[in-house]
Amino acid sequence: MHTVVLGTSGVSADDVIAVARGGARVELSAGALDALAASRRVVDALAARPEPVYGVSTGFGALAVRHIGPELRGRLQRNIVRSHAAGMGPRVEREVVRALMFLRLKTLASGHTGVRPLVAETMAALLNAGITPVVHEYGSLGCSGDLAPLSHCALALLGEGEAEGPDGTVRPAADLLAEHEIAPLDLREKEGLALLNGTDGMLGMLVMANADLARLLTSADITAALSLEALLGTDRVLAPELHAVRPHPGQAASADNMRRMLAGSGLTGHHQTGYDGLQAAPRVQDAYSVRCAPQVAGAGRDTLAHARLVAGRELAAAVDNPVVLPDGRVESNGNFHGAPVAYVLDFLAVAAADLASIAERRTDRLLDKNRSYGLPAFLAGDPGVDSGLMIAQYTQAALVGELKRLAVPASVDSIPSSAMQEDHVSMGWSAARKLRTALGNVNRVVAVELVAATRALELREGLAPAPATRAVLEAVRAAGVAGPGGDRFLAPDLAAADAFVASGALVAAAETVTGPLA
């Protein structure tokens, strides 16, 4: 199994996905262990002094005014974990919790938090044992870190609360630790606080969302090309010189994907001559949803590039408060504020909604006999007796409507907390949660366009689709999505198409002909 070695300088997005989704093992480098030990010596020295130090010898948040004596400090650290493990609602997905724990471990390994090496080693042991603490949907405001989610993870390190074992069964954390011979932690000064105080949940979800949206953008380029072909549109609008005069890199990449998909097509270019006796006025241009597909998906690509830039900076960061600096100072700071991550999570939700919106418009065009240039109404076998894909577009429209609501930003909705000490928060966790929902909906919308476009292409008898299109058609039919014909129970076809897109099989099928797509 793949192993990720944690040093002091951060991790990559690929590392996060390997641990969160791939179950990769985690190890701490010798350098990380040395940095942990060095920063712990700083905290131990401060703990021995009479002056109060936040997180070491004081309470937390609005209670930081109280100095805590040495005899109560262990209890203080346990109490912050227990009291902050106050999440409610459904369980959060296993991959999110693993990303959350791994990214917190990344910050511990930086040597800026002041925890003992044992704390980091115990967290690594939980990840490697496949023990996943139960974390709930609600409890983070995205400032002072993802407090409740991280607290539930920390609680498991103490042998308290519940966790999911490697077999998927939820059990008492104490039992799971005992089975894997992991000793529960007895926390010391600052360690409880250090386990809670980071943007790790929202960052983990951003990293995975970036990967998912990248796949969806390529998938949408493919289905847009299929729709253009099925509508007998022109690929001349995809010429590189046209996109060079408006030099957005994402736009050029999407246009290139579509152009490569359509290479060798016998269906494109009929927009000015009609087809098979169709008595329609020649088209000088295709509709916006077809012609502007690279501009919309391309803008999404450029938004994604910015989100990856922000994620990369966060992955190199050590987010804690207070933080142990290289010169030995321990300083309070505001680096736990999730605004940088929250903003891009919200921005991606906007891009995702628009990507789905334009895909739905192409689907509607394929189904409307007045705008589809000779295709039967709703792509039905016997229109009137059969309804074809009529209601599939309703489902698509419902998904797009929900995506528009999910695009409303969370990051502008600060709610003060902790007796007004924490009077401005990022809501980054909420932004991340709604983005995960949004991307699932985009996948479904793209899947419906795929079902419609492939059916329409097979109804264009006498014209040969592009080789890449044929590869997609063969793969989607092999995946259990039926072609044209009479009405049948449609939900299984849509579910199969959804899984086909989500698995990356759509992109893989196209790339057997096109080579790697952007």
Automatic annotation (TrEMBL):
Pfam families: Lyase_aromatic
Catalytic activity: L-histidine = trans-urocanate + NH4(+)
Cross-link 5-imidazolinone (Ala-Gly) mapped to chain: C143-G145
PROSITE patterns: PAL_HISTIDASE (PS00488)
Protein's name in the database: Histidine ammonia-lyase
Predominant place of localization: cytoplasm
Protein family: Belongs to the PAL/histidase family.
PANTHER family: HISTIDINE AMMONIA-LYASE
